[in-house]
């Protein structure tokens, strides 16, 4: 297949590594000319343990070149840039299948990413992949699991065929809503899990938090029109376990700093020097549940701890009510 990947961040590179092993022809796009030149000339991703990008993966800043004659377009940019980036691609999207590898919610519109892509491209050839996968683990070619969600059976088939190999297990579903909710909200729960750890509580208390969160997320999925059983998928329970228990997660690390009561200066320094998706998702989810009169006290409390500086100890008090 001929495949284009929008985004040259660590996850985009990780997806490219899978597709390259599967012998597909790959072009990647970045809007930054300096980055394109560096990746083209040096083929080195320093923040992925100095991963060497295969020489036959093409890097471009030309969105038309990225899109034209491709079978599948993967979107792997942060949620906040999906509208901006996809708008550039509108003239060049014809009948390509679109796979969204990004996770999150657009804060300004409170829209999930497939809804944005469908609206911009006027297509139903849209799929979403989500699961417990750190980019470095994908690069290292370890066994991983992914949920693949689409309303379009042909899109599911094409995305599945592009990624499928002996190291990847994929579950196919038509629950795009549930898959997107899981992929976004797990970063919020990771912040809360980090807070529990920062307060000095053991993994037993974190497990309590995670278990109660699964029930809350299932309720949220059902209320927003998805299938609650998606919480048991790779996109749900799998990704939550990964993100909520690993210090590789920036969201978890931020929560641990909040629970440890790191001073405001150091906390802000960490936030300003790292992309922490959970902060934006927390604001969006908080607005969504309140706009829809959905009662999830844990989300409201996490919001109050992070943004209104409420005492982190209130989190354990809520868990034991």
Are there runs of 5+ residues with pLDDT below 50, and where? none
Q: What name goes with the CATH superfamily of the largest domain?
A: NAD(P)-binding Rossmann-like Domain
Query: Span between N and C termini?
Result: 54 Å
Strand content: 5-15%
CA-based shape? globular
What share of the residues lie within helices? 40-55%
Number of strands: 12
Total domain count: 2
Strands of the widest sheet, in order across it, are 5-2-1-6-7-10-11-12
- Main beta sheet, described? 8 strands, mixed
- The number of helical segments is 15
Structure description:
- It is a single chain.
- By secondary structure, the protein is α/β, with parallel strands linked by helices.
- It has two domains: 2-174, Rossmann fold; 182-319, N-(1-d-carboxylethyl)-l-norvaline Dehydrogenase, domain 2 (Orthogonal Bundle).
- It has 15 helices and twelve strands.
- The strands form three sheets. It has an eight-stranded mixed beta sheet, sandwiched between helices. A two-stranded antiparallel ribbon has the order 3-4.
- The longest helix has 23 residues, at 176-198.
- It is globular, with a radius of gyration of 19 Å.
- The N and C termini lie far apart (54 Å).
């Amino acid at each position: 297949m001929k495949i284009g990947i929008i985004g040259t961040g660590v996850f985009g590179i990780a997806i490219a590594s899978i597709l390259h092993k599967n012998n597909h022809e790959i072009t990647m796009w970045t809007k930054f000319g300096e980055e394109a030149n560096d990746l083209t000339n040096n083929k080195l991703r320093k923040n992925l343990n100095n991963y060497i990008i295969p020489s036959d993966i093409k890097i471009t800043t030309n969105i038309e070149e990225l899109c034209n004659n491709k079978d599948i377009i993967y979107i792997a940019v942060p949620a906040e840039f999906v509208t901006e980036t996809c708008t550039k691609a509108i003239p060049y999207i014809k009948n390509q299948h679109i796979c969204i590898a990004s996770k999150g919610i657009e804060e300004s519109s409170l829209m999930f990413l497939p809804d944005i892509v469908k609206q911009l491209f006027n297509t139903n050839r849209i799929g979403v992949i989500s699961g417990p996968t750190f980019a470095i683990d994908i690069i290292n070619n370890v066994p991983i699991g992914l949920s693949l969600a689409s309303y379009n059976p042909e899109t599911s088939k094409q995305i599945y065929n592009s990624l499928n190999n002996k190291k990847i297990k994929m579950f196919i579903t038509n629950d795009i809503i549930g898959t997107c909710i899981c992929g976004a909200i797990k970063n919020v729960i990771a912040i809360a899990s980090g807070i529990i750890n920062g307060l000095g509580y053991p993994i037993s208390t974190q497990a309590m938090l995670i278990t109660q969160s699964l029930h809350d997320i299932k309720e949220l999925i059902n209320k927003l029109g998805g299938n609650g059983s998606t919480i048991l998928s790779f996109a749900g329970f799998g990704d939550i376990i990964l993100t909520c228990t690993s210090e590789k997660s920036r969201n978890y690390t931020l929560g641990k700093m909040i629970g440890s009561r790191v001073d405001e200066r150091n906390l802000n320094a960490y936030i300003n020097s790292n992309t922490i998706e959970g902060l934006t998702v927390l604001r969006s989810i908080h607005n969504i549940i309140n706009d829809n009169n959905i009662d999830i006290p844990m989300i409201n409390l996490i919001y109050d701890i992070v943004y209104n500086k409420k005492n982190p100890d209130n989190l354990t008090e809520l868990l034991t009510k």
